[in-house]
Design brief:
- A hairpin with a 4-residue loop joins strand 7 and strand 8.
- The protein has 214 residues and is α+β, with helices and mostly antiparallel strands.
- The protein has a seven-stranded antiparallel sheet with strand order 10-9-13-7-8-12-11. Strands 1-2-5-4-3-6 form a six-stranded antiparallel β-barrel.
- It is globular and about 55 Å long.
- It folds into two domains: 78 residues, Elongation Factor Tu (Ef-tu), domain 3, CATH 2.40.30; 93 residues, Elongation Factor Tu (Ef-tu), domain 3 (Beta Barrel), CATH 2.40.30.20.
- It is 17% helix and 38% strand.
Length: 214
């Protein structure tokens, strides 16, 4: 379990892909302190297991399906990834509950670099936006963010200066992909309510239900 509060940006040292599995090697800097073989660290919001440590250099095992279904497969040597260690029971939940299991990818459609806020609009599948609500939480490349605008197939977030400086979100360009994990509580609500309601099309849209009963 993670919080979406990024602890460090790590620099990609090597990307190894093979037929069934591979590895990702990242310079995690001071984040390696206290880390050991088998621990979990989220890379761009994707929960990965430490397979080896040498100094500040950490090797993670990565299945081919993980490379294929997240933006980890697009990484190049020299890129930066957002890093967060798994939450301990004694830790603070500063963001929101994040599992590290990516629900899908979104593509940067628009960037508005304003005087006060840096706003990014992403395009994604209808399935992802159906699991979001206005002002709700979403993890973007592992960063806990508040949804500022929500449309079918698109959503926007705004970065405060500290988030812009301490994560890789503002380093990406239009057309690049990010990993998205929608709010876990919302997904459970959708699952429970959809089982209680019968709909002709067999689909459930949380936003439509909220608007209908507002």
């Amino acid at each position: 379990m993670f919080t979406g509060i990024i602890q460090k940006k790590g620099k990609v040292v090597a990307v190894n892909k093979s037929v069934d599995a591979g590895s990702l090697t990242v310079d995690c800097g001071s984040l390696v302190e206290g880390a050991k073989f088998g621990d979990s660290i989220a890379n761009n919001g994707t929960c990965l297991t430490i397979a080896g440590i040498e100094g500040s250099i950490v090797v993670f095992d990565v299945m081919k399906c993980t490379y294929d279904s997240t933006n980890l497969g697009d990484l190049q040597v020299g890129d930066y990834v957002n890093l967060e260690k798994a939450l301990s029971f004694s830790g603070n939940l500063g963001g929101h509950m994040v599992t590290g299991h990516v629900d899908g990818c979104a593509t940067i459609a628009k960037i508005d670099d304003g005087e006060e806020f840096y706003t990014i609009t992403y395009s994604c599948s209808k399935k992802l936006t159906d699991e979001m609500v206005m002002k709700g939480s979403v993890a973007v490349d592992g960063v806990s963010m508040t949804i500022q605008d929500l449309q079918t197939g698109s959503f926007s977030i705004s970065l405060i200066p500290v988030t812009k400086a301490d994560t890789n979100l503002a380093t990406k360009q239009i057309g690049q992909k990010v990993n998205v994990e929608t709010d876990m509580i919302g997904k459970y609500v959708i699952k429970v309510v959809s089982n209680m309601l019968s709909q002709d099309d067999g689909e459930f849209n949380l936003n439509s239900l909220l608007q209908k009963n507002n």
